[in-house]
Design a protein that fits this description.
507 residues; eight-stranded mixed beta sheet
Length: 507
């Protein structure tokens, strides 16, 4: 990333001005309206391989889109002598003669001005570009030379965590949170406004902000999280004590306390009185739609509930007893049928089962608001709104006649498309929306953290795999950080899975 300018870009601006960049940035980078996103979806694909990416660039000299990783934009630059191109996710200008992305103050001001107008109009408090350095970050690199050594193989942001005695459950969650891109951007930009100024040491968000600064300071020594542990004990009493805790329970409790301690902006209004625009809800909150269909009149009762994560069953066996069957034996038959189902072998299997219609049975009749009588019904869960970070909890700890762990291997992908589990996608397949698949928003995610539980319930241990930059993986085992590869990650057992949305949209 060069911050010294480029003679080739300067010559281009002298001849053609900044209008070509303004047009590309306005129509294909900062798409803030539904129509603009549709236009981008139809237009932005590589003219050679017809793919949507990866790292799609637009030629600054002519109308041409080409992907960077496959080398098609490079081929175009070489054959046409068009050496300047705009990266369409972050708006950075690449000069193929210099072989680098170029910092240009004038173009940076254009991008920042448009982003500021869009954010102000939509009431958005933060920028949504996080996977690569933004124009503001490039300016920071220029103004602070000591911070320029964040290169491709940099390990800044990697720090081990001392185990304080059965605190591996906390260490792995902290590793996942500190490598959540938008959360990192928020805290490193000092966005938090403390609402406990008169109570020093009471705000968990301030403590997490301090931890982010420690993680990305460049210091390699392992950190001790005694202050964080004490604050969690104070605000989540059920986690207090020195015994081993569940990492998933700690994750939800931490989000809950952070959510309570955040001070969200009131500028962005919402129809729901429960809506919060704090950084936790902006990143982790999704909407789960529940449709209950009356079997008598087909009336549909719909509710939408917020969620921070999705817990997915792994076991299919359902114990039955004589008390579970009715006169017709229907409930016993349903339970027997469920117990004979094949256990899920992949995350997709789990999500498919989670979002399929479920017959509630005659023992769970509900009063239909349409026909005003108690009727049997079916219930289906789908995703109404997806969060920026989708976290999945594989329910490996099972309560039945005894408490035991399910160690079944469940395959999970590096890249996940959530479109088949969306509410509007199911409506389309039911014939309600016509053939508009290409107009759907992009619901693709990339894996960036995996938490594993090793061993048994009595002597278990938590570790984490985290993604550093684009393609570098590391295993975090308390104070020990070791290099890993994606295959090791995908071959792991998997307990908590964290996915980050690849393309972020303005609301």
């Amino acid at each position: 990333m060069s911050e010294h300018g480029c003679i080739h870009l300067s010559n281009f601006k002298a001849a053609k001005g900044t209008q070509p960049y303004k047009v590309i940035y306005a129509y294909f980078v900062a798409c803030t309206s539904t129509e603009a996103r549709k236009r981008k979806a139809f237009s932005c694909y590589c003219y050679i391989c017809r793919c949507l990416g990866p790292r799609l660039h637009s030629c600054l000299h002519c109308i041409f889109f080409g992907c960077f990783v496959s080398g098609h934009i490079q081929e175009h630059a070489k054959s046409k002598k068009h050496f300047l191109a705009v990266e369409l996710t972050y708006g950075m200008v690449m000069c193929f003669q210099c072989g680098d992305y170029i910092y240009d103050r004038e173009l940076t001001d254009i991008a920042n001005e448009r982003d500021a107008k869009a954010s102000k109009a939509l009431g958005l408090p933060i920028s949504y570009r996080s996977w690569e350095p933004s124009a503001n970050e490039i300016e920071l690199l220029r103004l602070h030379p000591r911070r320029r050594r964040v290169i491709e193989n940099s390990t800044i942001g990697l720090r081990g965590l001392i185990n304080l005695g059965n605190t591996c459950f906390m260490n792995c969650i902290v590793q996942a949170l500190t490598h959540t891109p938008l959360l990192r951007d928020f805290f490193l930009a000092d966005k938090h406004q403390c609402q406990f100024r008169d109570q020093p040491g009471s705000c968990l968000v301030c403590e997490v902000s301090r931890l982010f600064q420690e993680f990305y300071s460049g210091n390699k020594a392992p950190l001790i999280l005694h202050r964080l542990l004490h604050m969690i004990w104070t605000h989540a009493h059920h986690l207090a004590g020195y015994e081993q805790q569940d990492a998933h329970e700690f994750f939800i409790a931490t989000l809950n306390v952070l959510h309570r301690h955040c001070k969200g902006s009131s500028a962005h209004t919402h129809s729901s009185p429960e809506h919060c625009n704090c950084i936790i809800d902006q990143i982790f909150t999704g909407g789960l739609q529940s449709d209950v269909v009356c079997q008598a009149c087909n009336g549909v009762s719909t509710t939408i509930d917020p969620f921070w994560d999705i817990s997915l069953d792994l076991a299919t066996d359902i114990p039955t007893s004589s008390s579970e069957s009715n006169d017709s034996g229907q409930k016993s038959s349903e339970s027997s049928q469920k117990s004979n189902e094949q256990e899920p072998t992949s995350l997709i299997d789990c999500l498919t089962r989670f979002t399929r219609p479920e017959h509630l049975g005659s023992s769970a009749k509900i009063k239909c608001s349409n026909c005003q009588s108690y009727q049997e019904s079916t219930k289906q869960l789908t995703m109404k709104k997806l969060p920026v970070v989708a976290s999945f909890h594989l329910k490996r700890f099972k309560h039945s006649s005894r408490f035991h762990k399910i160690s079944t291997y469940v395959a999970f992908p590096e890249h996940l498309d959530m479109t088949p589990f969306m509410s509007h996608y199911r409506n389309m397949n039911n014939g309600h929306c016509g053939n508009t698949f290409n107009l759907l928003p992009d619901n693709r995610y990339s894996l960036f953290a995996v938490i594993n539980h090793l061993g048994t319930l009595d002597g278990g241990h938590y570790t984490a795999f985290i993604r550093q930059q684009q393609n570098h993986w590391f295993k975090c085992d308390d104070h020990l950080i070791t290099k890993a590869n994606i295959q090791e990650v995908l071959d792991s057992e998997g307990y908590l899975l964290f996915y980050h949305k690849q393309f972020l949209e303005y609301e």
